[in-house]
Amino acid sequence: AKMQKYLLHNSVGPEELPILKELSTSEIWKIWSGASCYIHRQLLQKRAVEIGVGTFALVTVHASMEEGKVLPVERPVFVLSKPLRSFYSLECDEIKIPVEIPVVQLDFEDIAAETHFRQEIVEQCIQETLLCFAGALRDNKEVEFSFK
Fold this sequence. Notes:
CCD81, HU-CCDC81, CCD81 protein, globular, 5 helices, 4-stranded mixed sheet, CCDC81_HU_dom_2
């Protein structure tokens, strides 16, 4: 049900983004940097992280080497959630996250402790940013989302 809020029929208005309006760009970056570190730690522990619009995971891909050798390499991927893909009619590479990989949610308490923001602020900042992301998908805008 959490993901439903990102299936938008209308554009996102500023009234839906109260926290993003209050925070500075560097504060927003700090919170997302904390989220990024949290995701990184989970991936290192062989867990996938679901963030509402999709899931970060490490998957094994086969890299071709010289002399026809194939080397299995673990690669971080972001898999957009299926309902989101179909709702916005997006074409994505079909990446399967292996079923044996446990999936966790973002731990807002953990990220708050690391970034020294209140937990509610962290949670709302992340959710409002994802709402902006969904709004950009809805309005067919190009989106670039960088993670360290």
